[in-house]
Automatic annotation (TrEMBL):
<protein>
    <submittedName>
        <fullName>Phosphotransferase enzyme family protein</fullName>
    </submittedName>
</protein>
<dbReference type="InterPro" id="IPR011009">
    <property type="entry name" value="Kinase-like_dom_sf"/>
</dbReference>
<dbReference type="GO" id="GO:0016740">
    <property type="term" value="F:transferase activity"/>
</dbReference>
<keyword id="KW-0808">Transferase</keyword>
<dbReference type="InterPro" id="IPR002575">
    <property type="entry name" value="Aminoglycoside_PTrfase"/>
</dbReference>
<dbReference type="Pfam" id="PF01636">
    <property type="entry name" value="APH"/>
</dbReference>
<feature type="domain" description="Aminoglycoside phosphotransferase">
    <location>
        <begin position="68"/>
        <end position="276"/>
    </location>
</feature>
């Protein structure tokens, strides 16, 4: 991945960028303003506001999105809104495209604009939220929205043992505080990485691929919205189901069996076709966790990114090391997912 610009955050005059984007997307200009909202590995979210009009601006840090992908995402999100799933709407620019490359004088950032969603990141993963997660994922998968192209290698490939040990050497050279923790974890990384497998091509549908608590906003009226669809693309219902169960209901070394049962029941009631069959169903989850740790640790010692980005990479890598899953955790999740019917019977639910 190559950083392509200094970033909107380096501008002294964000107002000029706000006015430019408002005109480019045929939005009200007036007293247009940009304010930062959220910051991640691949991009930053800004709020574009002008009085009562508000929009979300997604700034991409990496050259990994193109206009064709933006159109596919927009088509997918239109389809999911039609089946009752709350999510932002992509905004077309005046030239009929979704992406905008800002002028160099305004940072040269690659951005796109979405409708604004009011809400806070969900805090609970049980009860109503767990059932909403299952129902929403079931609706997405029941669409069987056609997949275009091949799955991103992020979901099917992980670094080799040799690449991990080369990274460890570089981490040691930079005297990163968590270097010893990474070294101690390498055997576990090697073991769990063997679970990553290619997604069977006859199972491919379009999936969200990042359905995590960080990407669900709870609105003031009790509604939920699933955001951050940039990663959506070819995936497997089976593997995404396991990914969601682990991401939402596995905490530390334990799995919340009641929440798993609620999510699984709602998923099936919504027509979700995925089934967690065995530990190989966890391939997508493992690939995501392993690649995230490798990428965050790499960014933490990379010279050609900003100091802020390196510091965030170091903090995120340390967090990922502390929350790295064990094979036993995956096995426990698989057991609970397969026996969720029995769990519900024990609770007196049908």
């Amino acid at each position: 991945m190559v950083r392509h610009h200094a970033g909107l955050g380096t501008l002294l005059d964000l107002g000029s960028a706000a006015r430019y984007l408002s005109e480019y997307y045929s939005l009200p200009v007036g007293d247009a303003r940009l304010s930062p909202v959220a910051y991640g590995l691949t991009g930053q979210i800004w709020k574009l506001s002008n009085g009562s009009d508000r929009f979300a601006v997604k700034e991409s840090f990496w050259e990994e999105i193109d206009e064709e992908a933006a159109w596919r995402e927009a088509a997918f999100t239109r389809a999911v809104r039609d089946v009752g799933v709350g999510c932002p709407e992509s905004v077309l620019a005046g030239n009929g495209e979704y992406l905008c490359r800002l002028p160099v004088a305004l940072s040269g950032a690659l951005v796109r604009v979405h409708s604004w969603v009011d809400g806070e990141v969900v805090r609970s993963t049980r009860g109503t939220v767990a059932r909403w997660v299952g129902r929403t994922l079931g609706r997405l998968h029941a669409l069987r929205f056609p997949a275009r192209g091949e799955p991103d290698r992020w979901y099917e490939k992980v670094p080799s043992p040799e690449e991990w040990r080369d990274l460890l050497r570089r981490v040691r050279w930079h005297h990163v505080p968590w270097g010893r923790r990474l070294e101690n974890l390498l055997p576990a990384i090697d073991e769990i990485s063997t679970l990553v497998r290619p997604i069977p091509r006859d199972e491919l549908i379009t999936c969200h691929l990042d359905f995590s608590p960080d990407n669900v906003l709870a609105g003031p009226s009790g509604t939920f919205h699933l955001v951050d669809w940039e990663n959506s693309g070819p995936g497997s219902a089976e593997q995404e189901l396991a990914f969601v169960l682990l991401t939402w209901h596995a905490h530390g070394d334990t799995v919340d069996e009641v929440a798993v049962a609620d999510t699984m029941s709602a998923y099936r009631e919504a027509g979700g076709p995925g089934r967690v069959r065995d530990i190989s169903s966890c391939s997508l989850f493992v690939a995501t966790v392993v690649n995230n740790l490798y990428t965050q640790a790499s960014v933490a010692i990379t010279a050609d990114v900003s100091q802020e980005h390196r510091e965030r990479g170091r903090a995120n890598a340390e967090a990922a090391l502390g929350d790295f899953p064990s094979s036993l955790l995956l096995e426990n999740l698989v057991h609970l997912a397969r026996s969720e019917g029995q769990v519900r019977e024990e609770r007196g639910l049908r």
